[in-house]
């Protein structure tokens, strides 16, 4: 059995690989070395504190915006989408008795968005060692 026939008999998912030849040039590090981590040469990195009140007010006007400002993008988008969906459900089903169930859901999501924005800003400050 030839090498090609042997490889074909193992199945289409298996392949034989040859090692690549050594590079023609020496792999030496650059004279200045890799870049230093951000702030390593200058001392500690200064970060601005997240203001929980600003996050709360932002989420008051646009649910999820405060979480988005705190860096929790996914949660902010989910809060906003759920809020919009609950209002759409309320508007579509308001003529049916079930439609009134969407109003408390929308208000609950709105309140949770403000709570999460406030607590998220406090948590961000704690993670980054910011004392407010």
From TrEMBL:
Keywords noted in UniProt: Membrane, Transmembrane, Transmembrane helix
Pro residues compositional bias, start-end: 23-37
Biased composition, class Basic and acidic residues, residue ranges: 1-17
Region (Disordered): 1-42
Highest taxon of the lineage: Bacteria
TM annotation in the entry: 77-110
Protein's name according to its UniProt entry: TM2 domain-containing membrane protein YozV
Organism expressing this protein natively: Ornithinicoccus hortensis
Source species taxonomy: Bacteria, Bacillati, Actinomycetota, Actinomycetes, Micrococcales
């Amino acid at each position: 059995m030839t090498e090609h026939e042997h490889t074909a008999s193992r199945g289409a998912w298996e392949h034989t690989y040859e090692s690549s030849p050594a590079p023609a040039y020496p792999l030496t590090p650059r004279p200045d070395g890799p870049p230093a981590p951000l702030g390593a040469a200058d001392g500690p990195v200064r970060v601005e504190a997240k203001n929980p009140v600003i996050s709360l007010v932002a989420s008051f006007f646009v649910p999820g915006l405060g979480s988005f400002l705190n860096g929790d993008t996914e949660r902010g988008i989910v809060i906003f989408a759920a809020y919009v969906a609950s209002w759409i459900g309320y508007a579509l089903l308001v003529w049916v008795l079930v439609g009134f169930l969407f109003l408390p859901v929308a208000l609950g999501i709105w309140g949770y968005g403000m709570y999460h924005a406030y607590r998220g800003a406090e948590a961000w400050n704690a993670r980054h060692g910011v004392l407010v």
